[in-house]
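Just wondering, does anyone understand what follows?

——
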Amino acid sequence: MSSASPYARLPAIIRPGLLYTVIEAPKGSRNKFKYDEKIGLFTLDRVLPLGFAFPFDFGFIPATRADDGDPLDVLLFLEEPVFPGCVLPARPLGVLEAEQSREGNTVRNDRLLAVLDTPHNPALQRAVADLEPNQLDEVEHFFISYNQWVGRTFKVLGRHGPEHAWKLVEKAARRFEAERSDAGQRKSSA
């Protein structure tokens, strides 16, 4: 992330049980915004076709690096949308394990599932099992359809609870730290 950006200074974990989330695309939006780490700003990646809209707020966990090379994706189950760039505390409920393919290249692209958790808005759900099953079916359908529209295949591998989600976050945070450490070493030896 750009060192000039305040998002570059955010840790992934606020405290045990809570993560920072940065929203890129609000619930109900056809606009797919994406945080550009090089410039430290949000850009419009694409406009989804008519009939497509994000089912919930979609964003990323700062200070993480997922298998696809981007920060770890998160879908935040909120009743009302927030704006791109909004930073929220979230409680992971689980993970939607998935792989994404394009032109024979397949990469894991899991989606962390989370809910807002603040002193004023405590999370009522604690695990994926607390969500309505049809919500997860609809979310899976959205990601499958969206990826098909952009020329990729999205295959759901499984749904897992909060323990699995935390393992995914910890792994992605370690990968981010290793990349940052390697970049620092290259910079100091230049």
About this structure: The beta strands are 13-15, 18-25, 31-36, 41-47, 57-61, 72-76, 87-102, 105-108, 111-116, 153-160. The chain has a mean pLDDT of 93.
